[in-house]
Design brief:
The chain is 35% helix and 17% strand. The chain has 8 helices and 8 strands; from the N terminus they run E-E-H-H-E-H-H-E-H-H-E-H-E-E-H-E. The longest helix has 13 residues. The chain starts with a strand and ends in an 8-residue tail after the last strand. The mean pLDDT is 89. The protein binds zinc ion (2 copies).
Length: 221
Amino acid sequence: MSTCSLCLTQISNHAAFCHRCSDSLRNTTPRCHSCGIELATSNTHCGECLSHPPEFDRTLVAARYAPPIDQLIHQFKYNGDLRKGRILAEWLNSTLPQSKPDLLIPMPLSPARLQERGFNQSAELARLLSQRCQIPVSYDLLKRHNSETQQIHLKRKERLSAMRKVFYTDQQIKVRSVGLIDDVVTTTATARAAARVLKKAGVKEVIIWAVARTPRPNDKD
Ligand SMILES: [Zn+2]
Ligand SMILES: [Zn+2]
């Protein structure tokens, strides 16, 4: 017996949450097939993906970035609460797609950010997820420079072009599909830039696999 991490109901398996909490987290709002943003209409794609198709192929989102998931993420990411990390990895694992990616790659942090935080939350999620879904993980294929520009003050186009120079790899990547693990997707600028590098390195399919997606795009990422 264990307990649901949100409502403390007793559950018989090792799932992260009870059925009721899982159902409410999953919410059935339609999402863009490419970027996972919630859609107000019955379209398959959002306006942004239609006018600027992303370099990644699809996005798996385990929950909306809202209470109570945002608090779990916050406690994991900023307070280093690894127990919360295990819960989130369990939750990510419950959204495992039928056609599994061949390799997991965590969204890298810049060296400066890594030093400041002490750990990369996406790398930790990828490590825990890999143990659960038996997909190998690679931590050093995709790398990130320290970005010198303050992204927030840039316009969309400038931000995208600044982002393009942020990620790099120094080798060919010989797998067909990659699951790029991230904690929260806010704008898709980061995911687009990272996917672009992976595709150039030989990956055929990039699936963004994130714990949560913010409901509406904004300028923070
Ligand atoms: Zn519950
Ligand atoms: Zn979209």
